[in-house]
Amino acid sequence: MKIGLDIMGGDYAPKAIVLGAIAAHEALSAGERLVLIGDTSLIKPVLAEQGFNPDHFEYVHTEEAIGMGEHPTKAIVQKPNSSIAVGFQLLKEGKIDSFASAGNSGAMLVGAVFSVKTIPGIIRPCLSTLVPKLKGGAGLLLDVGANADCKPDTLLQFGILGNLYAENILQIANPRVALMNIGEEEEKGNMVAMATFPLMRDTRFFNFVGNVEGRDLFNDKADVIVCDGFTGNIVLKMAESFYILTLKKGFKDEFFDRFNYEKYGGSPILGVNAPVIIGHGISSPEAVKNMVLQSKDMIETQLVEKIKKAFK
Amino acid sequence: MKIGLDIMGGDYAPKAIVLGAIAAHEALSAGERLVLIGDTSLIKPVLAEQGFNPDHFEYVHTEEAIGMGEHPTKAIVQKPNSSIAVGFQLLKEGKIDSFASAGNSGAMLVGAVFSVKTIPGIIRPCLSTLVPKLKGGAGLLLDVGANADCKPDTLLQFGILGNLYAENILQIANPRVALMNIGEEEEKGNMVAMATFPLMRDTRFFNFVGNVEGRDLFNDKADVIVCDGFTGNIVLKMAESFYILTLKKGFKDEFFDRFNYEKYGGSPILGVNAPVIIGHGISSPEAVKNMVLQSKDMIETQLVEKIKKAFK
């Protein structure tokens, strides 16, 4: 198993990423190899400083990098030698089994769709994120920003993707899938939500538990919450801002601690032909480590194969 | 000035509403009269119990009431003698200058549009809510649920309505109006948000400060945040759930205290031909008192007249 990791992406790259890779290495077994993609001249000093044997990793040297503010499509096309573009090339060629980066999210999305491509039958891949649950554990929210406008059949597919992720990676048996809406009743919602409800109610692909509301994100009503990427992105950023607020206010609590994205790794792109994870821009070594372990889980459980099978 | 108040609406009606009316009375001057609409046989004992002179209020006796779970349109049509329907009848006839209720929100919205009607030129009235700001004071979020699907010109109008409310009632000079979106850049967003941005950028009706994101709800980037009612309702319910969570966790903080809806009164319906306010279902006497004072402010500042003028 080869887990690809972009060393150049993220606000604290390359150092935080390399430190995360070292931490991840401790948790991986012999056959699970990390492939660090980036400027090796920047990687090696960090390894030396940490007294870490460089032979534990594999390396693909790149000299270009895509910045956080760059236009995703332009950057991917104009910087074929950037760590993100090279990572996707390796993923496409099967030289790595997964690819993760805490860099430019848009470039990661575009790169995934350009290189390994969308799984046949899937209308649009989406971005998912883990949300802490009050009772413990985590649920999944998707889409959180890949598709600002979604049609009902696209949302139905997000339900299928989320269900498979929850079942395989979060190890939730028969996950409860819900639709984010503005009321519990079937007839509530905007036009898209109202048209999505019967599709989800009648699907045989997952256990639909109906509509949930903004107040239900963290409670136990559903394991997977589906929404369009516009709503999901606003909800996600609002939740993050609350977490930051509790930190600033000095509130300490086990539940709020679990808002810390570091514990979850990153946001998987679901619906493409390989495991791809986008890390938070401010990823710390712990976040990177967990992103690597999340990559491993996605490879090991053959999530992508299972998604392909569901959409055949 | 006659301020109409539905005594029958709300989870703790009629007692909490009558107690709120008594508290409001202390803050009103001689010419500002409260008109209590509901079953007088339920009102009088509460006044007696409180040793409150019943002559301070005016009364309109009704024997029917609309329940929280009733279908809004059906209830308004089938219960013309309910406190909400009678309240709107009085408002339409000019016998009261404003109408407020903590009862069935849907019936309040339908009743407002059926009775006093939408102001000419306004596509759709909307529901607004106050949000506490970290720096102190409050901002306005609209729409929070009256219109799940909104077109760009409707959102532009919400900006005009929010601007006038912020200026007149919140007394913010030249309010900064923003569009809730998933990125700060002009080209970000779903189709509706992308089409709304240039309309807001080019308007002469308010000071548009661009897009804000989910994380900006409580910070100082904007005084008025405009979104469709689907997004706004989810955002509002999520914020409420966070507030409840901080209470449950025992976090005490001045900012979180200001999440308490009680301090703000209710949610004004903007865009109809009279001041109408919907209170929170769980309204306490303090919330009712503040809803009455908010009604008074809306009458006193002639907000409706100013809105009419803006849409002429």
From TrEMBL, chains A, B:
Pfam family, one: FA_synthesis
Protein name, as recorded: Phosphate acyltransferase
Gene Ontology terms: cellular component: cytoplasm
SUPFAM superfamilies attached to this UniProt entry: Isocitrate/Isopropylmalate dehydrogenase-like (SSF53659)
Record NCBIfam families: plsX (TIGR00182)
Subunit structure of this chain's protein: Homodimer. Probably interacts with PlsY.
The keyword Thylakoid is assigned to this record: no
Top-level taxon: Bacteria
Keyword Chloroplast: no
Family: Belongs to the PlsX family.
Cellular compartments annotated: Cytoplasm
Chief location: cytoplasm
HAMAP family on file: PlsX (MF_00019)
